[in-house]
């Protein structure tokens, strides 16, 4: 057995008027709860320090910039790193990154149990649009506010596990998971913000939840990995984000799921060896994969 306590900390809504300090305080409280449950790592959502601002059309650069972090840690987020170190718990955190040379990414970091950043991921599959969709109830302007991530998909050996990262829309793409699986991911952390309303075509909210869960369950099974998925949920500034934060085993089974649309910690004592068993048998890549027949995936 390879026991590994995983916690997912779902966030309730963060309103536009909420301060960074109040968001960070909520994260710290949930980190404490996760540690008390025995978690070695806690997964926070995508853009966990601010409201989901890509819903707003903004042209003023200063208005846009206030949603971005110029450094990590920063004075306001340092307490997350200090608490991580004091409690001996690692974490995954999503936030909007502004680089020193002016590039903007939708980013997540992986921090080990000593409070040290060990990995960074910049979101690759950016959904939505870059133009102002006048008349829509809200926007989804990730293509306006962020550049496509320029560092690829990675897995880090840390905290006695191989941990990969992706962000939100990435979870719907087969390719994301296989590239992480090929690097031997034991656990993949994914934060998300998903509106319950689809502004592009009519879609019942229950189908939105269905495709979210089926993406994670199929990905975990077909790619032999634990998945820890943390959402930001509830009514943010009149726009509803669905909840459904989960921990999924490599069998594709949901072993923990949030009950609310608010701040909520779920926990699972995962046995990472379950993935090893699958990898030795049905999904033994060396024995059974046929990459010579998969070339189209990268050619188109
Ligand atoms: N944040 C994010 O990537 N959300 C998307 C919404 C898709 S609708 C434009 C998601 O895939 O959940």
TrEMBL record:
Domain CN hydrolase span(s) in chain numbering: 4-274
Keywords tagged on the record: Hydrolase
Pfam family membership, one: CN_hydrolase
Entry's Gene Ontology molecular function annotations: hydrolase activity, acting on carbon-nitrogen (but not peptide) bonds, in linear amides
InterPro entries: Aliph_Amidase/BUP (IPR050345), C-N_Hydrolase (IPR003010), C-N_Hydrolase_sf (IPR036526)
Coiled-coil intervals: none
Top-level taxon in the UniProt lineage: Bacteria
Name this polypeptide is given: N-carbamoyl-D-amino-acid hydrolase
